[in-house]
Amino acid sequence: MTAAPIRYVEPVYRPPSEADSLILPVTDGCSWNRCTFCEMYTAPQKRFRPRDEEEVLESVQRCGEQFGAGVKRVFLADGDAMTLSTRRLANILEAIRRELPGVRRVSSYCLPRNLRKKSVTELRELAELGISLVYVGAESGDDQVLALVNKGETFETTREALAKLQEAGIKRSVMILNGLGGHALSRQHALNSAALMNAAQPEYLATLVVSFPKGEARLRESFPSWAPLSVIQLMQEMELFVSELELKRTVFRSDHASNWLVLKGTLGLDKSRLLRELRAAIAAPQAAPLRPAWARGL
Q: What's the CATH number where 200 sits?
């Protein structure tokens, strides 16, 4: 029996659009892991550490031996592979290029803080070696919300990171969390998140609904006054957010399992249609194609 070429530490997460990608862990866990809304890397076995470089390179070699040119996409896991040094990332990307010649896209999650010590020149080097897309969890553009959920970022630090990626030629897929500000901060969360997206003009934008399958205790340690939005209120927040977006050409998706109403389009081309769909669902939710609670998989 052939041994698995990659050692995984469960649970393993990746964006929905990476379903067909080879998941290559280069770190375990998340280097920040203090966001009180996030449950992804709280398991004891997910304590942050960089993978041994030799192990990663050997995994790439074994994948090359087993899969050859059949691998088209690689996603560098876990929570923020871009925290690794440029030198180490370059070595991994060179190995992917050498051992997996069919790869056309390498991507990863990326925290804004990962880029503070990386110059645009370094990021361009990584882009030339194959990094073409990163997923940035902005969560919100509102500094009060970001502080209350212990994100460790601000509107400006996120904007700077997204601008640096754009200058380096790396595409950005940004995530905003619908409902993260709770009832009291919903309006400013929507308005300032839209302002951040307008400033950044990302290539891709996704919205998810904040959810807590393991309970809200962790969030309430930092945000004790947080109150969840109803389905109607979530859609009203989304209507305000989308109405404020002034994007030139951004692929927009609100189709994650957490979303009650699936929305897809290109902004700004489809802004009017998306707003019509939202307003119709708000006005007559019983007639709207809302995802049933059981189908949200949470």
A: 3.20.20.70
Is there a domain that residue 7 lies in? Answer: no
Query: Cα–Cα distance between 280 and 263 in angstroms, integer?
Result: 13
Q: What is the DSSP string of 24-62?
A: EESEES-SS---TT--TT-SGGG--EEPPHHHHHHHHHH
Alpha helices (runs of H) in 201-261, residue ranges in sequence order? 217-222, 231-244
Quickly list H helices, the chain: 53-67, 86-99, 120-129, 143-148, 155-168, 186-200, 217-222, 231-244, 271-283
pLDDT of 209 over the 90 cut:
yes
Query: 73-77 and 171-178 as β-strands: parallel, antiparallel, unpaired?
Result: unpaired
Number of domains in the chain: 1
**Contact, 123 vs 82, CB < 8 A?**
no
pLDDT digits (tens, 9 = 90+) for 28-43: 999 999 999 998 898 8
Whole-prediction pTM value?
0.94
Q: Which helix (H) or strand (E) holds 266?
A: strand 263-267
